[in-house]
Amino acid sequence: MPSNNSKYTQEMRDKTARYVLETEKSATSVAEELGINTNTVCKWVREYRRNHELPSYAEEKGIVKKRTTDGGRNDGPNQGTGERTQEERKRTVR
C-alpha cells in the first residue's frame, strides 16, 4: 500500500499494472515509455496480481506450480522444508 506522500497514486499504479497485463508488453518497456523505474513497475504488477488473485508471472508461464487455496505452493509434502522423502532419496541413490 502506498504511503500518503507517495509519488504515484494507487490509480496510476493499477492502471499501469493493468496496461502491462492487458497489452502483454514487458514491464521494462512500459516503464521506459512512462519514465518510471523498471523495478517500480514490476512491483506494481506483482502487487496487482496478488491483490486480484491472478497467477504470478512464473505460474502463468509454467515455471512453478500454482499456489494452493491456502496460499502455499503445491510442490509436495516436504516442500519448503529442505527435506526429501525417502522415495526421493532412493531415486537419487539408484
Give a brief outline of the structure:
The protein is mostly helical and 94 residues long. The chain has a domain at 1-55: Arc Repressor Mutant, subunit A.
H/E series, N to C? HHHHH
Head-to-tail CA distance between termini: 50 Å
Would you tell me the overall average pLDDT? 80
Tell me about the largest β-sheet. none
Round the Cα radius of gyration to an integer and report it: 18 Å
Number of helices: 5
Q: Under the CATH scheme, which class of the domain at 1-55?
A: Mainly Alpha
Which percent range describes the beta-strand content? Answer: under 5%
CATH architecture of the domain at 1-55: Orthogonal Bundle
Structural class: mainly alpha
Helical content band: 40-55%
Please name the CATH topology of the domain at 1-55.
Arc Repressor Mutant, subunit A
Query: Which stretches are low in confidence, meaning pLDDT under 50 for 5 or more residues running?
Result: none
The geometry reads as globular
Number of strands: 0
How do the strands and helices of this protein lay out in sequence?
Blueprint: H1 10-23, H2 27-34, H3 38-51, H4 57-61, H5 86-93
Helix pairs in contact: 1-3, 2-3
Can you offer a commentary on this structure?
With 94 residues, the protein is mainly alpha-helical. It has helices spanning 10-23, 27-34, 38-51, 57-61, 86-93. The protein is globular and about 55 Å long. It starts with 9 loop residues before the first helix and ends with a helix.
Q: Keywords for this structure?
A:
94 residues, Arc Repressor Mutant, subunit A, mainly alpha
